[in-house]
Amino acid sequence: MVRYRGGSALQGASVVALVIATGLATPALAQEAQQQETMLDEIVVTAQRREQRLQDVPIAVTAFSEEVLERTAANGLEDIAGKAPGVTMTQFNVGEPQIFVRGVGTTSDSAASDPSIGVSIDEVSIGRAGASALAFMDVQRVEVLRGPQGTLYGRNASGGAMNVYTNRPDMTPSGQITGRIGSFDEYGLEGVVNGPIGEDTAGRLAFRYNTNSGYAENVPTGEDLHGGTSYGARGQILHHAGNWTFLGAVDGSKEDMDGQARIPVTASSTPAPFVALIDALRSGLGPRETTDSALTYQNRTNWGMTGRAEWQADRFSFVSLTSYRDNDYEWRDNLGGLPYPAFPLRVDDQASEQADQFSQEFRFLSPSDSAIDWVAGLYYFRETVDRSERFIVNTGLPIAPPNFGGDTTFIQEAVNTSYAVFGQANIPFADIWELTVGARWSQDDREIHQVAIDNDGGASPPPGIPLGPVGSPYDVRAETSFEEPTWRLALSVTPVEDVRFYVSYDRGYKAGAYVSGAQTAAQAVRPLNSELLDNYEIGAKTTLLDGRLRFNAAAFRLDYTDLQVYELSGLNLVTSNAQAEVDGFEIETALAVTSNVTIGGSYTSLDAHYTSDATSGVGLLPYNGHVLPRSPESQFTLYADGEWDAWGGTLAARVDYQWTDDFYFDPSNNAEVLVPSYGLLGAFASWESGDGYKIAVYGKNLTDEVYPVHVIKNVGIGFSVFAPPRSFGVALTRSF
After folding, report:
1. Cα 419 to the chain's mean position, in Å?
2. What pTM value is reported for the model?
3. Containing H/E element for 523?
4. Which of 17, 649, 682, 709 could form a disulfide bond with 689, CB atoms 3.0-4.6 angstroms apart?
5. What 8-state DSSP symbol labels residue 372?
6. Does residue 84 contact residue 144 with C-beta atoms inside 8 Å?
7. Which residues of the chain fall below pLDDT 70?
8. Per residue, what are the HEC states of 249-262?
């Protein structure tokens, strides 16, 4: 039986405090001649579709610079999600990352549904969740926006947005190449080349390659798991022609990854005979060793093209953003990780998906010297998704009679189309006040073809789980449309310099959805209602102590109408709409202790719960009062970051600690889906010479915490995938 080992928040915080104290003493290494002004760097974001100081934006935003991404050894969104207040990210597989912000998110994999948290790269919205699990490659910054972003970001940002911005080409010749080695036989190579390719034209090429053997093992076969090889590249060309600027980009990536080690974890709800059986079958095994011999894998290919045209004039500017993206993935997972028939249940889950999207946005913006900052635009999005998922299930008593097992395939062919018109204005008045007014009208059209196939051909009724035993094969089509206005109202005041307070009211919207894995034709053609989310927020953005201290805070209430709820009950997906409410507050702070050392952190408190039961195809679901999934009551982060002149070069160091309280993985709030609290400690140090050589060392999960990144429940057992253990890496970089 696997047992979690949660970290001590006090222990982790103590480690960080020790490192901070060490950092405060480290300036003795610095050259005595160094005399710098002690203040925080200014952060610029584009959360409102134009460049603004972070402290001027009346939105809860966290920004991660290129420097911070390097010093936290961030390879993707999953590495920075937990460092932003109120954010959690877990992953079922490469095609189904699950991001939650302030308790808002979704676990739906349907071809005819949307994410709740919008993810974009260079302002291009990514339609499918699997296409949003981005490997960071030549990234300039990441912005995390919390709360509904329906006005400027649209239908799939009802809970927030995560925006990735890559570095653009410029006319300065430069380049960089990095080689790295790390734990689990990791080897990687990445690089960037930038410079002029014409009189008014610059180009930039970035590439990335990484391979590792994985941190888990399939014991019967001896094969490594959670490893594999990934590579990708991005090319960009930027051309200036008078008032026009044209940017063209193409990118692609491929991942050939091993499968996952899914481990059964017993709880107080687990029947005693199953506890004894699992203990016997897994005797002597660790939390990253599985005993099923199935060949599992996770493969994905992404590529896309983007064209951006910008025109600058005295009265307004214009942006045209055109993009096409293609995402294909396939995976195979054993959802139990136990040998059959020694354990009376085995679920072989195989899925594949091919998706492509086209989007076009026309945007008009006020000039930089306008008394009123405004933006308005039109948006079009069309996506086609072909998805297939096959379940091969073996059952035995006491879980289910053997004939309840079977071989079932669910097929979805979907076309999702969205249209929108939007506008927002920031109106200053009476010297210290600013009113923000924004609105968006969206229409979403869905067409779906759903097929459920009993691959046994009815030879051994009923049809196999998860289609049976109460369902039956079907082949149906449906279509529907949803439309909804969303808006933003905000009032901010700056009573004294560098102190801004704001209140805001935002309406978020996520279009209705057709569910996947429906058991009957009636369920397959009946859509869930659209989600509506009202966010009431009061916040402060302050810069104090002559620029040395940044203190930002926000308190909020979210009222959810028709929240789309997904729960795996047994092996059947139960779907419904429910009402919910979230109350919380967030604090973010940073302090420049000296010209060399900055410390900071964040704290989040959430009270997220359902305020109604839900009704689904299987009857009443008693959710009222339950905690929303992926909604820890508290989270906090601490960090210390320093940079000094030392040994003829630049020495940099950073330590991070993040603590996540208990949370549930699904709406049932069953004991087997409770993830105990855990804390993660990471550290980084580098030294760069004056002629462009840099060596860096870093470590993740230094206290070797054992915690799950995904849980599926069945018969009182949580079948879990565990996060990587303690790991280290070394990187050598040459800049030129």
Report:
1. 25
2. 0.91
3. helix 521-524
4. 649
5. S
6. yes
7. 1-36, 132-134, 570-571
8. EEEEEEEEEECCCE
